Amino acid sequence: MTDDISLGPVIAIVGPSGVGKDSLMEALVAAEPRLSLLKRVITRAPEAGGEDYTPVTEAEFAQREAAGEFALHWSAHGLLYGVPAAAVVAQRAAGRGVLVNFSRAMLVDAQDVFGNFVILNVTASPEVLAARLAGRGRESTEEQAKRLAQASKPLPEGLHHVHQIDNSGELSAAVQAALAVIYPDQPERA
């Protein structure tokens, strides 16, 4: 895409299932008008809930991929995920920071593609993760166990601008920590 740092940053939100990535992203957008959420394209059924996404079939995903619509795309947990290139370009050109829920496996590629790129590695205690996964009710007990087993998986080597954000407690504390990373020269918000 571009490495022009005058464009708004792409902010990767990564972390294990149940860590509260979607809640953090929504709260960041509510707290900071210079930030926007990127709506991913996912081969997940529309009624599955969770984040706001564009649901597509695998055939539709393949068509969009072949047409070059994605800045990046990947497979995880039996689903296909795509980052719409046009949406990223438009939001960044407007000077907005673009929050994207990324797969850890795609971070090195994303860092190369986007240039002005910040990684917020969201964490939470194992107890909090287990409770959140059980509470959202999207996965079977077996799938929850698989996701919890992946929680401690390290980030890939060679990444720059990685910041840990603990989301075990109050969401407002995680929001303040994230905003301090994204906009380090700004005063803390109330």
From TrEMBL:
An example molecular function term from Gene Ontology annotations: ribose 1,5-bisphosphate phosphokinase activity
Annotated catalysed reactions: alpha-D-ribose 1,5-bisphosphate + ATP = 5-phospho-alpha-D-ribose 1-diphosphate + ADP
GO cellular component terms listed in the entry, alphabetical order: cytosol
InterPro entries, per database record: GK/Ca_channel_bsu, Guanylate_kin-like_dom, P-loop_NTPase, PhnN
Alphabetized SMART domains for the sequence: GuKc (SM00072)
Domain of life: Bacteria
Keywords on record: ATP-binding, Kinase, Nucleotide-binding, Transferase
Guanylate kinase-like domain sequence ranges: 8-190
Pathway the protein acts in: Metabolic intermediate biosynthesis; 5-phospho-alpha-D-ribose 1-diphosphate biosynthesis; 5-phospho-alpha-D-ribose 1-diphosphate from D-ribose 5-phosphate (route II): step 3/3
GO biological process: 5-phosphoribose 1-diphosphate biosynthetic process; organic phosphonate metabolic process
Annotated residues for binding of ATP: G15, P16, S17, G18, V19, G20, K21, D22
EC number: 2.7.4.23
Keyword Transferase on entry: yes
UniProt key word Nucleotide-binding: yes
Record HAMAP family: PhnN
Protein role: Catalyzes the phosphorylation of ribose 1,5-bisphosphate to 5-phospho-D-ribosyl alpha-1-diphosphate (PRPP).
Stored PANTHER family: GUANYLATE KINASE-RELATED, RIBOSE 1,5-BISPHOSPHATE PHOSPHOKINASE PHNN
Annotated family: Belongs to the ribose 1,5-bisphosphokinase family.
Protein name as annotated: Ribose 1,5-bisphosphate phosphokinase PhnN
Organism encoding this protein: Tritonibacter litoralis
Gene: phnN
